[in-house]
């Protein structure tokens, strides 16, 4: 009577789980890199044919919600125009040729834009008004 052993070790290697992990890693990295975008606020910028390629050290964004305005310095929400000035001073104090990029929604009143322009002028910052290409 011959006794047969029914359990044999399968020596093959399946890479299907490895490809699944690589696909998930690739998907995660693609999503993560799109979230790092500095212009994460959805603003309808005014159109302009004159585009400047100067590199800004920091950005200020103004967004209108109803009758009030939200101010952001580098995507960090600040309280009012005074908060914008304090945040800019903290970030740009002592830097030469400090450049600020101003991103405003189309619906923002010119008065709010002028307030940020005055902050830049008073502190000797260069100001770039961000626009969309025509």
Percent of residues in beta strands: 15-25%
- Which CATH first-tier class of the domain at 47-133 would you pick? Alpha Beta
H/E element string? HEEEEHEHEE
Helix content: 25-40%
Structural class: alpha/beta
In the sheet with the most strands, the strands line up as 4-3-2-5-6
Helix tally equals 3
In short:
This protein is an alpha/beta fold and 134 residues long. It is built from three helices and seven strands; from the N terminus they run αββββαβαββ.
What does this structure look like?
This protein has about 130 residues and is α/β, with parallel strands linked by helices. It has 3 helices and 7 strands; from the N terminus they run H-E-E-E-E-H-E-H-E-E. Strand 2 and strand 3 form a beta hairpin. The chain is elongated and about 100 Å long.
